[in-house]
Amino acid sequence: MPSLTFSSQHLPGVTVIAVAGTIDTTTAHLLDDYIRRTCHHGDHIVLDLSEVPYMRGSALHVLLQTHLATQRDGAALHLASLQPGPARLLRVTEVEGMLNVHQGVEQAIRAALQAARPSPVGGPVS
């Protein structure tokens, strides 16, 4: 039976989820369920996909739904460390430009933490 494994870490305003395994029609719902159970409302989400060698269109559906949900909450989805197969899927479906894709997990976490940081009321102080 195919499966995915997950681990997560909560930072201020950011949830980091590491995913390992193949995301296809039989496992995409596991990713969706884990994201829904793990993430706090309004958190930016970083998905570490460094251990995901392959994903199908069903995974893309979960990513796009998560992207839209985080946007509605005033946050964002950040994808990190895509292997060649998943990166190609995003490229050929022309979704890559819609999503926040980062080369490394550290870059994605920095970007998410920066975005989660509240801006000063009234703008920057000079």
Automatic annotation (TrEMBL):
Residues 4-112 form the STAS domain. One of its GO terms (molecular function) is anti-sigma factor antagonist activity. PROSITE patterns: STAS. InterPro entries: Anti-sigma_ant, STAS_dom, STAS_dom_sf. It comes from the Bacteria. It holds the Pfam family STAS. Belongs to the anti-sigma-factor antagonist family. PANTHER family: ANTI-SIGMA FACTOR ANTAGONIST TM_1081-RELATED, ANTI-SIGMA FACTOR ANTAGONIST TM_1081-RELATED-RELATED. This is Anti-sigma factor antagonist. It comes from [Actinomadura] parvosata subsp. kistnae.
